[in-house]
Design goal:
By secondary structure, the protein is mainly alpha-helical. Helices cover about 70% and strands about 0% of the residues. It is built from 24 helices and no strands. Helix 17 packs antiparallel against helix 18.
């Protein structure tokens, strides 16, 4: 046999095997094209989420100079401001009958081109999380890794088709109807159409870019944006109130305490809107503490603006503005804050809410539809079961709200319907006592009173 004959024989055998197997698996596909496309679609959703966040961060950096905040705090402040403004812009698109795929892509593309420098700066700020991790002790790193696992698991859920009742009923259903119609309108057969819809506008934009799962991933990201700002604010608060500790561990503990609560954690993966309220709330915390420290009224006004964004997500976000106003009234003399400036802050908070008050008023005659006022769209009987205030519960449970909420609150049930986890109550009271000499801690407690 010639030396090259075995090679020729092997080549013939390999070609024959290839021919037979390709023909077989062409008609007996081991993996369907849909299954093969799923990971690519998930990756595309993540990339779109990053692009929308970069645009939001760029908008925030263009509109607000925040050099006196840490990089961690800037991530949250600029991201939250950008998402709020982006929602208002997309709402205008809805009024102009421009809820279309091409309009969404044009907005994203042109926005990133115009704001490319600010968007890149915001993305570079994300490295501050890695820097904080590298300079953390072993215990803090372990807390960070556990937090990453908890958040990462929720991302996997967000990447899957939505199954949450709220999402299927209105958080994603209303955006789907708007995109089908091509414009923003009142949906009379859906009572939730009257809810304020800042978050739903962001979902409508991201769904127009690709699919419902894209909105779910963006909802996950909005909740995650809470964490760097919370970490930075707590580090700075504890570090200045107790210089000997330098706030080293406080930020990671605050993040873990929040993620330990089942309700907040699971909201990340279920296309909810409450995490947007939390995002704006974390920005309010950062700005409010800065106002308390510097006495510069611009930070008070911005805290009111972000409170308005929280209300534009859900009407119940009004407790945040009530808390800020209460603290402002209490500290007005110390902070040299005239009553007229407090009124101006309340009016600033009204700005993000105005589009929804006008929409509801024109469509139904009730600016806060479906609450409080009977209309032809919503009669008195069902209105009684949809009241703004829950009258159930013993008065002792109200007085000792932090304890009762922690003990008997569980997700989607019970008196409170919320599981905040044990760590917030476990650590907050000792922490407040330890730092009670700092006026910012006392003011933060005042802000919480209206929520109680």
């Amino acid at each position: 046999m010639r030396p090259n004959k075995p090679i020729i024989l092997l080549a013939v055998i390999a070609a024959w095997m290839f021919f037979v197997l390709v023909g077989y698996y062409y008609f007996h596909k081991p993996i369907s094209p849909d299954v093969l496309a799923a990971p690519l679609s998930a990756l595309f959703n993540v990339l779109l989420m990053a692009a929308v966040l970069a645009l939001a961060g760029g908008i925030g950096r263009r509109l607000l100079k925040a050099a006196n905040f840490s990089s961690l705090e800037q991530i949250t402040i600029h991201g939250a401001l950008g998402l709020g403004v982006l929602s208002l812009i997309w709402t205008v698109f809805g009024w102009l009958h421009l809820f279309t795929t091409w309009a969404a892509w044009l907005l994203l593309g042109i926005g990133l081109v115009i704001l490319r420098r600010e968007a890149l700066e915001w993305l570079r700020n994300l490295s501050a999380v890695g820097e904080t991790f590298r300079h953390s002790a072993r215990l803090e790193r372990m807390i960070a890794i556990i937090s990453l696992i908890l958040a990462g698991y929720q991302l996997l859920i967000a990447l899957a088709p939505p199954i949450g009742w709220d999402a299927l009923t209105y958080h994603l259903q209303l955006p789907r109807l708007y995109l089908e119609a091509g414009y923003l309108y009142h949906v009379p057969e859906n009572m939730y159409s009257g809810h304020f819809q800042l978050a739903e506008m962001i979902y409508t934009l991201t769904m127009a870019l690709h699919q419902p799962e894209t909105a779910g991933v963006l909802g996950w990201a909005a909740g995650i944006l809470v964490l760097p700002g919370l970490m930075g604010a707590v580090n700075r608060l504890v570090g200045t109130a107790s210089p000997e500790t330098r706030g080293k561990s406080a930020g990671w503990v605050a993040v873990f305490a929040l993620l330990a609560g089942q309700t907040f954690r699971t909201l990340l993966g279920f296309s909810a809107t409450d995490q947007f309220s939390a995002l704006f709330g974390s920005a309010v915390l950062i700005l409010f503490l800065e106002w308390m420290q510097t006495q510069q009224v611009r930070w008070f006004y911005l805290a009111c603006l972000f409170s308005g964004f929280a209300i534009a997500v859900k009407l119940t976000g009004g407790v945040l503005l009530a808390g800020v106003i209460l603290a402002a009234l209490f500290y007005a003399k110390r902070m040299r804050l005239r009553f007229s400036k407090i009124v101006l802050g309340a009016l600033i908070a009204l700005l993000p809410v105005l589009p929804w008050l006008i929409k509801n008023g024109v469509a139904t005659g009730n600016p806060i539809f479906p609450y409080s006022i009977e209309t032809t769209f919503f009669q008195l009987k069902p209105l009684a079961s949809s009241t703004l205030l829950n009258g159930n519960g013993d008065w002792l449970e109200r007085i000792f709200l932090p304890v009762s909420l922690t003990w008997v609150g569980y997700d989607k049930g019970g008196l409170f319907g919320t599981d905040i986890g044990p760590l917030i109550l476990l650590l907050a009271l000792p922490g407040a006592i330890a730092l009670w000499h700092d006026q910012r801690i006392k003011a933060a407690v005042l802000v919480l009173i209206p929520a109680a």
